[in-house]
Amino acid sequence: MEEFHKVRRLPPYVFEQVNRLKASARAGGADIIDLGMGNPDLPTPQAIVDKLCEVVQDPRTHRYSSSKGIPGLRRAQAAYYARRFNVKLNPDTQVVATLGSKEGFANMAQAITAPGDVILCPNPTYPIHAFGFLMTGGVIRSITVEPDETFFPPLERAVKHSIPKPLALILNYPSNPTAMVATLDFYKDVIAFAKKHDIIVLSDLAYSEIYFDGNPPPSVLEVPGAMDCTVEFTSMSKTFSMPGWRMGFAVGNERLIAALTRVKSYLDYGAFTPIQVAATHALNGDGSDIAEVRSVYHRRRDVMVESFGKAGFEVPPPAATMFAWAKIPEKFRHLGSLEFSKLLVEKADVAVAPGIGFGEMGDEYVRLALVENEHRIRQAARNIKKFLSTADETMHNVISLNAHR
Ligand SMILES: Cc1ncc(COP(=O)(O)O)c(C=O)c1O
């Protein structure tokens, strides 16, 4: 029987292959150090959990909630943008709460895309950026992820040669998986380009608060006039270590926010009210929770860069995000990222995310998530050191046979 139209557009997650190996190694007793999935391991700050527990006692909060987010929550998100980016938002028309930023992004794709619409999407990137649109019948045109002068010539070509002309451009800085960051000057050029060609800009700013070099990532909405064509998505998952709570936001252009709000009003009743109240409490906090989360990732980053480097696996220090994006050591590169990731599970008890899972341009890389503690990151480095130093003898066949292909 032929597979359903939509399901055919959703091939099995590449990461599943590594996950399956990981599960079977664990079932066999192996202690796998999991740097694969970007699933924050830190507990949500206690005051946020306490707020949830308090509010849930009130039966009035057990009813259906508000799909676009309770007013106080939308006001808190607008206040965050004012404080952090000096961007003024109308909480009634320019802010909508989403069930995590992933849901918001996917439903925005649903709201704005007609079959055959062309979307400019970085490669490699977080999978929903492409699949959100592929599910709705959109067509992806890959662009480079580097936020520098190499970014624009392919965009100009895309506008000139795509039929129909591209509908939207996706940005994601700090980038998952590459950890690249963008400057405000880059965003100014992006907005000028988008306005010139009448293209919608969708910016995924999930890592707005996870940065390490004292340099907070800007919002594209800081660019004067960006509001005319832009929506930006943020997430509480990483900022407050609340991934399971499913709370995020879309903010920006009123017409786009209204389109997303309309679609969502047909699909959901919003997050559980106690979650929305606790999220409001978190956003209105003094920022100390965020600073604590950031400093944990910072220390882990430093430990990873140092210990992996010493182990012979060079990891460039990411300036932001909870990921490092590392080139596969030379002698394994020909294997491709999936085979290399499988080898790491089988021979080094370390799980990573193969770069190919983020797009074809990622295949020479693996992504390492900072979701294990410092001690276990050092242990992963020791395992990898052993793996790399014995590979020439123990995996003679794997290395040399493939190298000669
Ligand atoms: C770039 C990016 N966007 C969105 C998300 C999803 O976040 P949320 O939990 O808010 O749906 C992630 C999660 O890893 C991410 O890396």
From TrEMBL:
Cofactors demanded by this protein: pyridoxal 5'-phosphate
Highest taxon listed in the record's lineage: Bacteria
EC number of this enzyme: 2.6.1.-
Keyword Transmembrane helix: no
Recorded GO MF terms: transaminase activity
InterPro entries: Aminotransferase_I/II_large (IPR004839), LL-DAP_aminotransferase (IPR050881), NHTrfase_class1_PyrdxlP-BS (IPR004838), PyrdxlP-dep_Trfase (IPR015424), PyrdxlP-dep_Trfase_major (IPR015421), PyrdxlP-dep_Trfase_small (IPR015422)
Protein's UniProt keywords contain Transferase: yes
Broad class of enzyme this protein falls into: transferase
Pfam families named in the record: Aminotran_1_2
Domain Aminotransferase class I/classII large: 31-382
Key words, A-Z: Aminotransferase, Transferase
Family under the similarity heading: Belongs to the class-I pyridoxal-phosphate-dependent aminotransferase family.
Full protein name: Aminotransferase
Organism of derivation: Rhizobium wuzhouense
